[in-house]
TrEMBL record:
Sequence ranges assigned to domain O-methyltransferase dimerisation in this UniProt record: 21-96
Xref: InterPro entries: COMT-like (IPR016461), COMT_C (IPR001077), COMT_dimerisation (IPR012967), SAM-dependent_MTases_sf (IPR029063), WH-like_DNA-bd_sf (IPR036388), WH_DNA-bd_sf (IPR036390)
Domain of life: Bacteria
GO function terms (MF aspect): O-methyltransferase activity; protein dimerization activity
Domain spans labelled O-methyltransferase C-terminal: 120-324
GO biological process, one term: methylation
Protein name as annotated: O-methyltransferase
PROSITE patterns the UniProt entry points to: SAM_OMT_II
Active site per the UniProt annotation: H253 (proton acceptor)
Pfam families noted in UniProt: Dimerisation (PF08100), Methyltransf_2 (PF00891)
Keywords associated with the record: Methyltransferase, S-adenosyl-L-methionine, Transferase
Amino acid sequence: MATGGDGATPEQGAGPERMVRLLAGFEVSQALYAVAKLDIATVMNEGVSEVAEIAASTGTDALAVKRVLRTLTDFGVVEQRGDTEFVLADLGATLASNVSGSLRDLAIMLMETHYLPFERFVDTVRTGRPAADIYFGQSFFEWLNAEPERAEQFSAAMASVTDGMQSDVFSGYRLPAGELVADLGGADGSVLLRLLREHPDRRGVVHDLPAVVPAARTRVAEEGFDGRVDVVGGSFFEAVPVADVYVLSTVLHDWDDESCKALLTRIARTAAVGARLVVVEMIMPITGEVHASKQVDLTMLGMVTGRERTLPEFTDLLANAGFRLDRVVPTAETSSYEIIEATLTG
């Protein structure tokens, strides 16, 4: 079972000691990966707290498990109750598969698709070219979509992120007017289904790559949206469905300005003047305040050609494709995401 835990990053020591811990961050990432991948967090979330029992339930080495969990106490992931007794903090529970909003799939995907490419990050800083391009010899999305299993893993991870953020981002939010809503790059459709629950008179379309279509169709059926929501496979750079409202949830940050303009222009050429656009993204602060978008931007730098953007950059990006930014909708204080609404002006 999970307990409270503040999830604080350790600040022990100053100067060199803290820098050593930052430099060893890759070790913490691997420890979190092991706890997620080997279902250690899942077993602990069922109430198992003794190291020997955790190891027996997961087929792992008891001493190794103890040492991993002991280290993760410094990061607010677990709490130590005795020499061999550990319980999950709320932060650690996100790595269990048996919780709502689990990030287990994300933890596994990041370590199995992002970790190794980042060994070429020095080359990225030197040249501006994504480390993934250098490591894989092709773009990350080309590599990802070459194998259906990879695409499915990525889609599941992204779905876990959107599942976790939905209540904070969309609580109380209502879509702009329009009968048909298209979610482009909609993964398993969870965002669209959440939005349409507030609008029972509207229909929807989930649009994503063909490898993602089966997962979306399954979710649409399981949640009772057959007949209201269609699922269409394809590249949104080549074609998009005709709709009144278009949703782009954490899509634009994956792409450079030229690619974003191509996507937005594709929408503009398909939709009628007055069509609405709903963009869900982090908005990079212009000042030096602490914000999650800064580390996500590092991921974009290393893996793809995209980036996080400031509000003026979003305004220009939309305007260059014929959209007027109407408003930014605030979300819960616990969320780093914001909702941008725009209108196609022609």
